[in-house]
């Protein structure tokens, strides 16, 4: 008799201490759970083996990427329903150990082992990367991490990002604006905050596919050096620069920001790049950018932030993000970012929180990916496409629920005279 779904519902209820708020459809065709709820599809027993060998988020991620697990219905609603029971309660590894002291929980695990069949651990999906933690954020490991994330294929990113090819939070005039308009408004906002004028020099750290460099040169007449560690991004950006007729204004380099030696610059933009730096290296990052600016020069640091923890020593990198999306990426609270910039010598002049803007941006990216799903799978493979769909949808919810945020920090290398050349009224960008 087909009863795997009913057995799974019962076992998960025992293990989690509460019934799953979604339906389950198992590999034998059986279904169980609340009628009308989104459906978690367990395609095979291998999904259970992944969860048993890697309980929590990493096991779920492996099952999702491999296609052993799927969701039918509203992806956002399903992730919201599951977050409290699975992901959020798994943030502390001690919670799992405490759970397994319960005889009912141990019995549930034994039931899952029986239902899972062959006990051998399935191999991780090929999309998973493992970075050696003892070598975090050397130039070599940073290049490898950036390549893993960005060298997926420019055609794939064109599907997700659209014509703007901007891979960071847009700045929405209204929720009904187009993604392209919102990204243009973001680039223009950065230029105005930096006070860009003809004849000035801009360094764009982590320049991506060249959108900021092109906008600053075309609309504000500045000379721009853009640096990236991604070969594919650099090739794409150089072609765009040439197509725009801006080769005399824009230089795109495959270069680590730590190796830039042609200072001084009038301004530095770092948009969605600092998340790759790492907490231990952040002061060095801030000091390097400070040293690249002339006195009076401005830095615009656009960066995702996490909520602070009572005990910061307990912070650990999200297992799914670290293994599949941003290897070695780290988030820190906005207060720590501001403090590090000030320690490096900067005067922080403005902090603008634009959390809701990133939620809107991510939902647009997910919609674009889903609209061209078959082509995305052809370009990047089914596993990679599934990684990006889950990552972006879950991130949208995290921004909406204030679990993470994003901020633009404007800082100045204020000279000893104290003359910052900033406008007297805040947010009157010149």
**CATH first level of the largest domain:** Alpha Beta
Strand order of the largest sheet: 7-6-5-8-9-11-10
The CATH superfamily label of the largest domain reads Vaccinia Virus protein VP39
Number of discrete helical segments: 17
Number of strands: 11
Report the C-alpha radius of gyration, rounded. 23 Å
Number of domains in the coordinates?
A: 2
Distance between the termini: 72 Å
As residue ranges, the low-confidence spans are 90-94
* Portion of residues within helices: 40-55%
The H-and-E topology, N to C, reads as: HEEEHHEHHHHHHEHEHEEHEHHEHHHE
Assign the CATH architecture of the largest domain: 3-Layer(aba) Sandwich
Q: Average pLDDT, to the nearest integer?
A: 90
Task: Give me some keywords for this one.
Rossmann fold; 2 domains; seven-stranded mixed beta sheet; four-stranded mixed beta sheet; 11 strands; transferase
Description:
The chain is of the alpha/beta class and 430 residues long. It has 2 domains: 114 residues, no CATH class; 275 residues, Rossmann fold, CATH 3.40.50.150. The protein contains 17 helices and 11 strands. The chain has a 7-stranded mixed β-sheet. Strands 2-1-3-4 form a 4-stranded mixed β-sheet. Strand 6, helix 11 and strand 7 form a beta-alpha-beta unit. The radius of gyration is 23 Å and the shape is elongated. GO terms for molecular function: methyltransferase activity. Pfam families: CMAS. Keywords: Lipid metabolism, Methyltransferase, S-adenosyl-L-methionine, Transferase. This is Cyclopropane-fatty-acyl-phospholipid synthase. InterPro entries: CFA/CMAS, CMAS, MeTfrase_dom, SAM-dependent_MTases_sf.
